[in-house]
Batch of 4 targets.
Target 1
Amino acid sequence: MPPCSSCKVTSTKTIEILAILTFTGPRDHLNVGLTYISAARFPVQANLIESFNGLYSTMSQLLRIILIVLVLGVAVLVWVEVRQVAQVEEVAQVEEVAQVEEVAQVEERPQVYGSQKDVEIIVTSPTKGSVVTSPLTITGEAPGFWYFEATFPVVLVNWDGLIIAQGYATAQGEWMTEDYVPFVATLEFTRPEYGDTGVLILQRDNPSGLPQNDDAVEIPIRFAP
């Protein structure tokens, strides 16, 4: 009687099972047994299970890849956002520094003021609208006839014309000339309680006291808080 094909399959499977059981642990024995039973009795179902397991493994790997890509994408977006904020702040700081330097340059640039009698006085500091504090240093140039004995009066008044400081500007060179002579003056004052505006007055020295010899230059300023 010829051997049946199912017996050959069973014998082959039995040999494979014995070999696996010899080199594996107890937990694997159960898996091998289930696989053998499924393959022997339900070959179609076993193939479906294997196909499903392969598909599940592939999908798991694909989900891991997608998750990694999403995490990397979020990280890149966060980095770009942080970088943009940093660049905006850096640009703002640069612009602020540039504005401060520009204002400082404008304030330090000499300005020419016409007196009541159209005499031009060059003032380096403070200029019109400058914010001043005590002590106030005044620098510039005035023609020699503006001085007497190398000085001329300077007065600081508040918004109401009240004198809050006065002194003399001193020539920084030979004053007995028609040319312009540099001067320097320093005034110490107490900030007015009311109002933040005032006027700096540079007066021509008039030892004669004659009104026709009076002259002055007025420069509006602001008091620091």
Target 2
Amino acid sequence: MPEGESKQSLLGNGADGEEYVKHLMSFFHFMEKKGYEADLKAASKVTLGTTTALKKLAKAQHGEKDPAKAKRLTKVEAAKVRLINAKVAESMLACLAYDLFCKLLRDKPKIQWDRIVTDMHTKNPWEDIKGVKHNSLHGKSQHSLTDCIKFHKLTVFTIDAAERLRYYLMCSIKKPIRWTIRMHISRMEVLNKYLGILPTIKNSPLAVTSTEMGNVPFTEATHASIILSHLPVAWRNQYNLMHKTVPESPCVMLQVLENIKKLFIERYNKKAQANKAKAATAPKMAERVPKKRVHGGGSDRGAPQKGHSAKYCKWCKNANGPYTTHDTIKCRRLEKDGTPKDKPVKPFDSAKKPWKKTGSGDSSQMAYLTEKVAKLKKKLKKTKKHGKKCAHDLSNSDSDSD
């Protein structure tokens, strides 16, 4: 492992999804740098070719005679020996890749990796990533390494992580206002690269025959069209006016979008300068003569302001009163012909207020109130005596029952 890079690439507790993807990318980088990837692919190719040749030799031909059969069986035995040697060579190279992946882990991710490897290579029967059980021991190979890595991905991501990221890139994301177009395109290219590493429903027990692979990155033309849909509508319309075809790639589209951004910035600056010049030529607030507002009624108040009140009383205006609060027919002071209104006087009812009789003075009112207070005191005293009597009778009844 390259010195100084191992500590930076270790994956431990609390790692999020993007850190895990970066860990996988660093693992593939180390595999390529050490030559493990090329050697493992070559060994896997030899194993596959030997297996195919063995299956071909194992089939008996129609009308085969004994000498030809004996010769074919001899070739079959030799092919079996070559297959065993090829699997051993592939297994030794796969062990190096397993150890490298384990060295890049620590804490819980390492424990989970050890559990996955144990379940894959020590159990009989063992279960693959699609949920199919196999009744044999599973040796280490390039295919088994891929399956173990897929199982380890499920400890961080959901089974449909690739499909969810595709939907996010196509429908949910928009270019942030503070980002430049170059920053947005760079980030979209990174997310598109992550798409090929995430788990997909196709490699799960949930998949059906027609399920498509969801972890396939977008092509350059499709990716460029998706990036263009993230931009403001005015930018898209300007791009469509300048081009007759869809964008070819994000790199080709980058320079055009930067020029479109400069164009809109120039338009905005010109509009701001025009507004500033218009504000400079407009009359200033200090030069305006404010109109003095007169409060209260009067002939110098003028007509009622538009939008406030349309009411008008001609009699109150002649009397210098508030004439905009009511109409002439609803005036409470004057009649329609201008004569003063007589206020109705309610007759006094002595039954409701007997202490306040017509012609009586303060002495008679005090005498009435004194009499009422004396009656209330007598009534209260009778109530107390009745309560004491009831309590005495209740205590006597309790003693008799004992």
Target 3
Amino acid sequence: MASFGEEIRRERELRGIGLREIADITKINIRFLEALEKNDFKHLPGGQFNKGFVRAYAKHVGLDPEKTVNSYLHELNTQEEHERARMKFTPPKKVKKAKARSIAVGIVLLLMIIIALVVLGFFWARYDPDGFLGRILSSIFAR
């Protein structure tokens, strides 16, 4: 069974009508007409505009406008159901695990740097007790 877009394109071609002609007469952008024929509804403005485009297209080609709108709505619902099903069964990405790991690595590195600075400070104060750091540490621990 042909899709909505294939069906309206076939009917238009059978009547020898070009997309440019429909675009000029209906004042609908040719990109939107191409999107209708490709069932690429996400590139249409949406809502009532889309129904109006389908009605105008159908009238110009000589199709029943209401029947064509119903076919469009059926195709649209089918696409939305497929999209919902695809989204429902898409496995979650492992972003959370990678983010938790990078946070843990960052914390460990920060702790290692702090420990290294404290150890270096004590060694510096031990070998240079009259220096700046030695005086600070001796005043802290002398209390």
Target 4
Amino acid sequence: MSRRLESSIKKQLYRILYWQLIILMGLALLILILQGIHKGWSTLLGGSSYFIPTSLFMLRLTRYAGARASIRFVMAFFSGEVLKLGLCGILFVGAVRYASINEVYGMIGLIGAIVAFWIGSIISLSQQEAK
């Protein structure tokens, strides 16, 4: 794969993370305004428990964007997905247990971050196709 194509893939992954973060922050801000600081903070921490592992997963994938690394890419993808989900669970349980977040709003943040990932992917891909 050419350097230009590798750069394009990395740009797409970073754009997805950007949109996921913007949507998550917007959701947390909306909850903060409507429901107060504790529930807004809970939403942000719940969403962060998915955003942080997803960011690490995406950054790891960018190392294997070349065609010669296709087998390593697939292995990194599957092992990274398992690690991402495990880390997400650990971070969410840690937030509930040690940060005393509101579980319902933490779950709203977690689900919001998952949905934001897909929305960010759609936005990023539609912007790429428009070029």
